[in-house]
Amino acid sequence: MSANLDFVKSIFDAWQKGDFSSVDWAASDIDFAMSGGLIEGRWKGISEMAEAWAAMLGAYEGLRAVPEQFREFDRDRVLVFMRNEGRGRESGIEIGAISTKAANLFTIGDGKVTSLTLYWERDRAMADLGLS
User: Fold this and answer.
1) What pLDDT, in 10s, does the model give residues 51-82?
2) pTM
3) Most distant pair of Cα atoms in the chain: their distance
4) Cα 97 to Cα 83: distance, rounded to the nearest angstrom
5) In this model, does residue 121 exceed pLDDT 80?
6) End-to-end Cα distance, the chain
7) 132: helix, coil or strand?
8) How far is residue 104's CA from residue 119's CA, in Å, rounded to a whole number?
């Protein structure tokens, strides 16, 4: 296993427990994007990422990101197939029952995540990476 793969797995150790509080893994100028879901967009830097992530997390109770498969896409990128669990704060609906399989794409440089894209639909990640 590579250092990058181990690094991403360590991030998911907290996320699968619903703990999204740490940003120690992120580069200060991280390029952060969400594709699909309730909020779509691109943000730059830790503070913008934290604002966008907090807005998304506020829509859910007990949100957890559960990894299913880790794949080294290339030397600098790790693709994680995952599913989200939790429930809508307003609706009370369990999102695991209604959400599609998700994916996260991490780009790593100098021991930090320099780019992270959260895909709410795995197929869109595959298409963006030319794998569909």
Assistant:
1) 998 887 777 777 888 999 999 989 999 999 99
2) 0.89
3) 42
4) 10
5) yes
6) 26
7) coil
8) 6
Residues 41 and 68: their CA atoms lie apart, in Å, by: 25
CA-nearest of 116, 2, 3, 106 to 52 is 116
Question: Which residues sit opposite 65 in a β-bridge?
Answer: 84
If DSSP codes are grouped into helix, strand and coil, which group holds residue 53? helix
Q: Which domains does the chain have, with CATH numbers?
A: 3-128 (3.10.450.50)
Could you tell me the CA-to-CA distances from 16 to 10, 64, 82, 129 in Å, in that order?
10, 5, 10, 25
108 pLDDT band (50/70/90 cuts)?
A: very high
Calculate the CA 49 to chain-centre distance.
Answer: 11
